[in-house]
User: What shape does this take?
Amino acid sequence: MIRVYKFTFNGFQENTYVLADDLNNCVIIDPGCYERHEERELTEFIREHELNVLALLNTHAHIDHILGNQFVLQTYPVDHYLHEKDIETLERVDSYAALYGFGGYKSSPLPTKVLQGGEDLVFGRLQRTCRLSLSGRRIRNQRRCALQR
Assistant: This one.
């Protein structure tokens, strides 16, 4: 059974997800935690639920979804997954983070696992397929790696 936990972080009110299996393995999806209290909320939750973090996944690389990447990767030495079409977007965040009020933004590391689309991702008992899809949300034709059941 997969348990899904949602956190709402940063000024954009971005949704960060933790997906956990029945063995307490989990993945963190789109860590938008920017403020210290948001980082604490995420790590305390993981500690209190005795979760074992297996990976960081970004569905796409908009600033609100990657603000906590560096923190998560420093706290949990795991692989970082992102679709290849979003690497350029990830690299550009440094150039405009301050304009959005995130002057303390810590640069996200590049992904250690680059996705092409169509991969089956398995983490413990969690399994998802990465699908490249076009979305009408926020930016038309933005490519996103959607984790689907």
